[in-house]
């Protein structure tokens, strides 16, 4: 229960260093804009979040007690436990392949993976024969160290060779090999379950507005009167992005598009087709209807996206209709469905009851109930947070058995857990 306790500390703490402002990101951006002109919102986001020297993710533990936002795995252990069951259920439905890679994008403090690995070690009987391994795609060396402490108890080594695609490796406290990479292309091929929790919302977006002359891109410029301030401008002519990233039948007048998210979905779809497996994407998002979702978070409060860049998290809701479109018909896409529906289908109510029965301390019981409420209440994360999956087509087709005239339909495939009720055979 310690994680829930630290969450509530985190929401009330006002650390001293929170007010210290580092202007290096702003200086870097203003000199860049002055020499080459306004930059796209995508470039702004990329520089602010993942610049290897000054990026927000590279330098912050944004989820800690002194952090800027809080995520489901940090709120309740039940979240990761149910996802652990989801991973096992998809592996079983795929015919229990020998190789089983669990891949997570942007694992934050490692809490989700830690809860999943606990479930895996409790399910060692059904998982028995599988050769399991963990693969983390993480851009921040600082967070990778925290993840390693959480998952390996310091049993990890950093690579001394800068060109090594595996920049850290180790063994989890549950005995599995674990590897860290900077990008998906470095993760070995093979049957994989891919998880991305609050990852796609951190990928850079372009912003467009419909004008009388057609679509125009919103850019970031230096303020004409105040040199150390940034402002949004609308470019008078089309950009490559504004002429290529929008749909001809787009109904909205303001649109955010995340091409890096699109590229990642294509890479995931290719791998799922070639090697089998599934991807589960969990994020604040919508199905192609929302506009103007780009926002900043600092110390758990909304923060002006252009103010003090590098000191606050930047995020934009995920457009799942765009992800579905780029995935194409190579894979089966299901969702998005709400976090509330997904967790209820996975049996969150039963799991809560079991934990409450085993927990004597009233304050821990209250925290469990409060965590459950934050995750599932439609007014909190229940409806706004969405789940979306990519599956190999074989997953939902009924296999044929036998030869020639003896051919018979095999058993119907298991429903996909979370998107319908959990059912393990
Ligand atoms: N999944 C965690 C953390 C979410 S924050 C949770 O839900 O608690 C986003 C995470 O993605 C951080 O770990 C951040 O360092 C990582 N990240 C952001 N952009 C990335 C990129 N382009 N490549 C790899 N990791 C990235």
From TrEMBL:
<comment type="similarity">
    <text>Belongs to the NDUFAF7 family.</text>
</comment>
<keyword id="KW-0489">Methyltransferase</keyword>
<dbReference type="InterPro" id="IPR038375">
    <property type="entry name" value="NDUFAF7_sf"/>
</dbReference>
<dbReference type="Pfam" id="PF02636">
    <property type="entry name" value="Methyltransf_28"/>
</dbReference>
<dbReference type="InterPro" id="IPR003788">
    <property type="entry name" value="NDUFAF7"/>
</dbReference>
<keyword id="KW-0809">Transit peptide</keyword>
<dbReference type="GO" id="GO:0032981">
    <property type="term" value="P:mitochondrial respiratory chain complex I assembly"/>
</dbReference>
<dbReference type="GO" id="GO:0005739">
    <property type="term" value="C:mitochondrion"/>
</dbReference>
<dbReference type="GO" id="GO:0032259">
    <property type="term" value="P:methylation"/>
</dbReference>
<comment type="function">
    <text>Arginine methyltransferase involved in the assembly or stability of mitochondrial NADH:ubiquinone oxidoreductase complex (complex I). Acts by mediating symmetric dimethylation of 'Arg-118' of NDUFS2 after it assembles into the complex I, stabilizing the early intermediate complex.</text>
</comment>
<dbReference type="InterPro" id="IPR029063">
    <property type="entry name" value="SAM-dependent_MTases_sf"/>
</dbReference>
<keyword id="KW-0496">Mitochondrion</keyword>
<dbReference type="GO" id="GO:0035243">
    <property type="term" value="F:protein-arginine omega-N symmetric methyltransferase activity"/>
</dbReference>
<keyword id="KW-0808">Transferase</keyword>
<protein>
    <recommendedName>
        <fullName>Protein arginine methyltransferase NDUFAF7</fullName>
        <ecNumber>2.1.1.320</ecNumber>
    </recommendedName>
</protein>
């Amino acid at each position: 229960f310690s994680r829930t306790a630290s969450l509530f500390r985190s929401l009330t703490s006002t650390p001293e260093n929170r007010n210290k402002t580092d202007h290096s990101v702003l200086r870097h951006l203003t000199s860049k804009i002055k020499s080459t002109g306004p930059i796209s919102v995508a470039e702004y986001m990329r520089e602010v979040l993942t610049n290897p020297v000054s990026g927000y993710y590279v330098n912050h533990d944004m989820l800690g007690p002194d952090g800027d936002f809080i995520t489901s795995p940090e709120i309740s252990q039940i979240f990761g436990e149910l996802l652990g069951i989801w991973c096992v259920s998809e592996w079983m439905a795929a015919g229990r392949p020998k190789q089983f890679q669990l891949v997570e994008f942007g694992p934050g403090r490692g809490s989700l993976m830690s809860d999943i690995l606990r479930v895996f070690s409790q399910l060692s009987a059904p998982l028995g024969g599988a050769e399991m391994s963990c693969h983390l795609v993480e851009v921040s060396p600082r967070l990778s160290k925290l993840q390693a402490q959480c998952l390996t108890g310091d049993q990890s080594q950093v690579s001394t060779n800068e060109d090594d695609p595996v920049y850290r490796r180790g063994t989890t406290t549950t005995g599995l090999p674990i590897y860290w990479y900077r990008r998906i292309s470095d993760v070995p091929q093979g049957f994989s379950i891919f998880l991305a929790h609050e990852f796609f919302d951190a990928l850079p977006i372009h912003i467009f507005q419909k004008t009388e002359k057609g679509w125009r891109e919103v850019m970031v410029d230096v303020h004409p009167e105040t040199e150390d301030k940034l402002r949004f401008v609308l470019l008078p002519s089309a950009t490559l992005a504004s002429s290529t990233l929008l749909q001809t039948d787009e109904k909205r007048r303001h649109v955010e598009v995340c091409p890096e998210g699109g590229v990642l979905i294509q890479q995931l779809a290719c791998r799922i087709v070639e090697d089998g497996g599934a991807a589960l994407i969990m994020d604040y998002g919508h199905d192609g209807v929302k506009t103007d979702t780009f926002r900043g978070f600092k110390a758990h409060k909304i923060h002006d996206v252009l103010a003090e860049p590098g000191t606050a998290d930047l995020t934009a809701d995920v457009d799942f209709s765009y992800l579905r479109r780029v995935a194409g018909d190579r894979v089966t896409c299901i969702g998005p469905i709400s976090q509330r529906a997904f967790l209820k289908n996975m049996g969150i109510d039963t799991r809560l009851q079991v934990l409450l029965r085993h927990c004597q301390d009233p304050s821990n019981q209250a925290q469990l109930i409060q965590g459950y409420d934050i995750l599932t209440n439609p007014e909190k994360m229940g409806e706004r947070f969405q789940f979306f999956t990519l599956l190999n087509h074989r997953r939902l087709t009924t296999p044929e058995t036998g030869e020639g005239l003896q051919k018979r339909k095999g058993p119907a495939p298991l429903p996909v857990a979370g998107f319908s009720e959990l059912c393990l055979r």
